[in-house]
Structure formats: structure tokens, C-alpha cells
């Protein structure tokens, strides 16, 4: 794969990772973390690690943010 394309994907992942750290609201952080998982999956795919990219897509972009969102919904329901 092109080195320029890999460099862009790496920069995209670095920016997304920084955005996760700088986001303070847990609800917004779940969405930003999902975006970060998607960026890592793209990077792995460009590096020809398809199995790792698929695992990252399922776990990092879908499962973990979904669990965080469901947990936040449960906690906010119990507060009322």
C-alpha cells in the first residue's frame, strides 16, 4: 500500500486518539472512541492485517462504545 495513504491513516488515528483523551463528557467520549476504533481498523486494513482490522471494527468501533452507552443510560435512569 502507498506510504502516503498509511501516513494519512496514522495521522487520522493519532488525531482521533487525542480527541478521545480531550473529550470530557462520557456520552460524547463513547462516540469519539467509536470513531477512534474505526480509524484504527482502517489503519490495520491498510497495513494488510485484515483479521486484526475486523476484530478492531467489532470490538473497538461497536462493542465497547455500545457497552459504555448502555451503562450510561442505566446509570442516568437510576439517578431519576
Q: What this model shows, in words?
A:
This protein is mainly α. It has one domain. Helix content is 89%, strand content 0%. It has three helices and no strands. The protein is elongated and about 55 Å long. The model has no long low-confidence stretch (mean pLDDT 92).
Quick description:
With 80 residues, the protein is mainly α.
Tally of helical segments? 3
Shape: elongated
Tell me the helix content: over 70%
The average pLDDT is: 92
Q: What radius of gyration results from the CA coordinates?
A: 15 Å
Q: Report the major sheet.
A: none
> What kind of oligomer do you see?
single chain
The portion of residues forming beta strands comes to under 5%
Number of strands: 0
Chain-wise SSE layout:
Elements: H1 3-22, H2 26-46, H3 50-79
Descriptors for this entry?
mainly alpha; 3 helices; single chain; 80 residues
Amino acid at each position: 500500500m502507498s506510504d502516503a495513504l498509511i501516513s494519512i491513516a496514522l495521522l487520522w488515528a493519532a488525531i482521533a486518539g487525542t480527541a478521545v483523551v480531550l473529550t470530557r463528557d462520557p456520552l460524547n467520549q463513547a462516540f469519539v472512541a467509536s470513531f477512534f476504533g474505526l480509524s484504527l481498523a482502517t489503519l490495520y486494513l491498510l497495513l494488510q492485517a485484515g483479521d486484526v482490522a475486523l476484530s478492531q471494527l467489532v470490538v473497538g468501533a461497536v462493542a465497547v462504545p455500545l457497552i459504555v452507552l448502555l451503562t450510561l443510560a442505566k446509570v442516568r435512569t437510576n439517578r431519576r
